[in-house]
Amino acid sequence: MSKVCEITGKKANNGYNISHSHVKTKKIQNVNLQSKKIWSYSRDCWIKVKVSTKGLKSLHRIL
Fold first, then answer.
1. C-alpha distances in Å from residue 57, one per residue of 12, 28, 51, 53, 54
2. What are the coiled-coil residue ranges (predicted)?
C-alpha cells in the first residue's frame, strides 16, 4: 500500500527533528490520507479512493 494521494499525487516529505541541543535526526512527514468511497455515475457503483484531506476539500467543491 503506497502512501500517495490518488487525486493530488501528494506523497511523504523528508524533514528533521531538532532537539534542544540542536541535534538533527531525520524523520518522514507522511500525508494525511483518508480512505473514502465515492459514487461514480458513469460506472454506476462505489469506488474506494485514498485521498489526502486537501484532495478531499477539492472533491467537495467539485461534487
1. 19, 24, 10, 6, 5
2. none
pLDDT at 59: 80
Is the domain spanning 13-62 CATH 3.40.1550.10? The answer is: no
Indicate the domain borders of the chain: 13-62
pLDDT in tens, 7-47: 999 999 999 999 999 999 999 999 999 999 988 889 999 99
Q: What is the distance between the alpha carbons of residues 63 and 61, in angstroms, rounded to a whole number?
A: 6
Give 34's strand partners: 51
Q: Output the pTM of the full model.
A: 0.73
